[in-house]
Amino acid sequence: DTEVTQTPKHLVMGMTNKKSLKCEQHMGHRAMYWYKQKAKKPPELMFVYSYEKLSINESVPSRFSPECPNSSLLNLHLHALQPEDSALYLCASSQFSGTPSSTDTQYFGPGTRLTVL
Amino acid sequence: RKEVEQDPGPFNVPEGATVAFNCTYSNSASQSFFWYRQDCRKEPKLLMSVYSSGNEDGRFTAQLNRASQYISLLIRDSKLSDSATYLCVVSRSTSGTYKYIFGTGTRLKVLA
Known about the structure:
The complex is a heterodimer of chains A (about 120) and B (about 110).
Chain A: E1 4-7, E2 10-13, E3 18-25, E4 31-37, E5 44-50, E6 53-57, E7 64-70, E8 73-79, E9 87-94, E10 107-108, E11 112-116
Parallel strand pairs in A: 2-11
Antiparallel strand pairs in A: 1-3, 3-8, 4-5, 4-9, 5-6, 7-8, 9-10, 9-11
Chain B: E1 4-6, E2 11-14, E3 19-25, E4 32-38, E5 45-49, E6 55-57, E7 60-65, E8 70-75, E9 84-94, E10 97-102, E11 106-111
Parallel strand pairs in B: 2-11
Antiparallel strand pairs in B: 1-3, 3-8, 4-5, 4-9, 6-7, 7-8, 9-10, 9-11
């Protein structure tokens, strides 16, 4: 099973709302990622968690707050977002076996399509 | 200069044609290489990993040239269903984890 699940599929929120995106994988992967993707652009890395610790924050604004409650779950908490934050938010996971190899494939969830009004 | 570069296309080809995509990467510390396919409004899906010796999966052939820092994807006998964006991805170690760096993607449209 190479499935990464994400909820919700769609989210519409106002600029003063607080919401959370959820991601789950049961492949035993130890690295999990959040990406943001705008139309006709490639995914843009936001955060990386390795062994439940935040390893990379790509200078993401503090209105995005990641959380990794356990090795299978990854959340992205949203607060006071701007209309330009509207995008597809993708979660991914990879095995993280020690050194990158061709078997350390990233698997993506279907994404949450976020609209900020 | 972007770390991973691809021709954005679009490549418009007739059904049955052979089409090749190229990708260059600038960081010599890059360790693993992949081609992903992304359909409109969907998530990227792994098409194939790319090995130094080159590898083939049905109509798809991938090549890696580490000396030139160049990756290619060849699609033979194109089908309408091959229409998608093809993303070149390289990974490397950084900050105690792996980072996957995406090219801009190459759009392919196969025409009937």
